[in-house]
Every structure is written in structure tokens, then in C-alpha cells.
Amino acid sequence: MKKDTDCTEILVGKAASMDGSTIVARNEDGYGPINLIKFIVHEAHDQTNASYTSVTTGVTVPLPDHAYRYTATPQADQSDGQYEEAGINELNVGMSATETTATNARVLGYDPLVHDGVDEEAMVTLVLPYIKSAKEGVQRLGALIEKYGTGESNSIAFNDHDDIWLFETAGGHHWGAVRMPEDTYAIVPNQTVVQEMDLNDTDNFLGASDLVDFVEKYHLNPTPGHFNFREIFGTQSDRMLITTLREHGMVKNYLIPKSNRIPLIKTCRYSDNQAKNWLLKTSSSSYLHTITGRLTIHLALSLLVTPVNKHVTGLSRWIAISAHLFCKSGMTCLLSKPPFNGSH
Length: 344
Known about the structure:
5-stranded mixed beta sheet, 19 strands, globular
């Protein structure tokens, strides 16, 4: 049984990273002393009348006729499912799934979680091989959640060369997603973080087809005139708030170093004579929960293909930062790195 403090996501927009990369990273807290993870590559292939059946829920989902090449980081022991968790496909689209969140009781009363739907175990397998952009990932996963339902509350991140989308489930069949502004980064804990949404602005916000109607029908919006996804669907915990605020400062020190450590996040200078005074580029919903247990970092990096030195620089910086921050005492870091080509 999963606990309510599972993972943490770090999202970095392309205008906030040092080399123009979009970066999605997530630690995976274990629930025992050892949970071996593999790094694998699925080759592209054609398939006719194929389907996927989840070991954990029993749901069977028909699959498209062509699957793109993609990387994945599944469990070594797949007796309770694949849990491919994170990867990047041949079109340079990354996906990290999932971070556990929570839906409040009043929403669950009208849209309860289901026991035979699409859960974390199947999400990467059902989505990543079949999408051409981060936004398409949101749309495909959203359609699956609406049709088959889900038995968990989760946050899922998608990235491509230009964009990062954060997807959050709400109840058994609803969801919302936001495109991160390019000049921001976010540290996301185990709670709903998407806030004000304008679902008419489909360049930046997406949601379940009946999301607004569902909220209005059951009078779920505590602040009429606004559509704050977190207030409508999320939960509140004083313990979590205190913990996330305390730990957020610690992580920022690694992302925006005050010493000679290599920075991951781009910074702004006030003037030439104040060159060492850094101004953080941060989103309004940047929090972090206490990191506990054995961690596995899943890195989904959409890096510039040219010039080559940018590719290497961005990669080496992130390895250095993630190793220093997370990879201690036997903790494992796994990397998914594009681009692919047809030969290897």
C-alpha cells in the first residue's frame, strides 16, 4: 500500500534552464529496503489488433497500430506489474508517471476511484509510445482516464523540446493540466498544485471534457467566478504545508547555488556591479515535501540536438546536481536521454 508521501517532481522550463533544455525529474520513494529498477529501450514496431492488459487492475486497452521507440525504467520484479515510470520516445517526448496526490472527499463522493481502470502501473506503457508532443501526451492520457477511469490520484509530467505540461487526476474520471511558463521552474510535492485555470485557453490549459459541467452540477467550486483546480479537487494538510515550505529552501540551494557548484537553473543579474546577486526564476506553486526512503531519480530531458556541446553540458550539469542532491547511500539515479536515430 502506498503512503501519502511518495515522490517529488522538479520541472524546469527551457528559458529557466542553463542551456535551453526542458527538464522533468522525479524521485521515486520506495516502500521497502530494495526495489530494483531496470533501464530498457523498446524498439519501434507495428502491431495489429494489439492490446495491453494491466496486471494490477485487469483493464484491457486496445493499442494503436504503430509504437514509437522509447526508453523506460520498469521494476526488475514485474510480478505486480511493469511500472515503466519514466522515459523518452524517439520524437523527443518525455513522460514521468507518477507522483501520488490526493482528491478531497466531496469530489470522491460524486466521482469515486475505480478498481479496474488505468493506474500508475500502465500509464507510461499506454501513452509514451504513441505521442508526438507533450500536449498530445496530456490529451491521450486524459482520454484514457475519462474512458476507463483510474483508481489513484496522481500527478504526471510531460516534456518535449519546447514545453512542459503538468497533468493531475481528480477523482475517478476527471483531470486537469497546465503548460508551465517557459521561464519558470517548479518543485512539486504530493499534493494538487494546479491553480487558476482558463479552459478556453487551450494553448495553456486542458481538462476533462465535462470538467466544468461536473463542478457546476455538484456545486464543488468554493470560489465561484474562479476555477481554481487545487481548491476544487485538492486536499489540505497543515503537516504537509509546514514540511514542504521548510524543505523547499533546501532544494533551491542546490538548484541555485550560492557557492561554486554548477547551477542547473538560469539566473538573472540586476546589474554589472551586482553580478553575484542572483534572482530566482520560480513559479508560484513551488513546494517540496520531506524526501524519505530509497530514491530513484527519473530524468526526462529534452535537450537541444545542436550544437553537441550544449547537449553534453546540459546532461553533465544535471548529473552533477542530481548526484549531489539525491544519489547518496545506495540511492540510484536513472537517465533517459534523447535523441534517437534509426541505427542505434
